[in-house]
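User: Sequence in, structure out. Go.
Assistant: Echoing your sequence, followed by the structure tokens.
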Amino acid sequence: MHKTISVMLTGACIFLALTGCGQTKQQHEAAPGKEPVTAEKPADSATSQPEEIAAKVKAYYGDENGQQLVEKEVTVNYKQAEDKYRAALQTLTASSDSKLVPLCKGFTFNTVTFSQHMLTVDVTISQEARQGAPGEMLVLEALKRTLFQFPEIDAIDILVDGKQVDSMMGHVELPHPIKRS
């Protein structure tokens, strides 16, 4: 019984010593005229947050008439390597050039996951973003060209609201997965 209590007290003492009784900084009394000594260094902000990476990617938009794709090089920013795909997709939702139509305006990219050379994209498409057959074909082609520019992606699986559907907007067949040609 005494051994169990002794082990528990020792463990509690070690725990309290390691946590500093809930304080993030311990200061020791300093001699008059000297700075107090701190037991811990403040966290280096450069190591606690990953630095933002800027990369140039090709994004695809509709022309003024929405009849053909127009390629434009844009800069995307992301912090983790796996976030570059989402950043590239986000470029398709808006355009700073009034002559380029963002084909994915009204799209919400819920999840974008990369595993074993396949990128799975779960998207929600607003009612306003839904288009006829020609527009849907352009959207699908813009998604393929934007994502297949990354050599590590061999296939794309596009889900709508978490489900494999036959068509994103009801007009054009959506294969599962779409393979690089």
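User: And one key feature?
Assistant: The longest strand covers residues 53-62.
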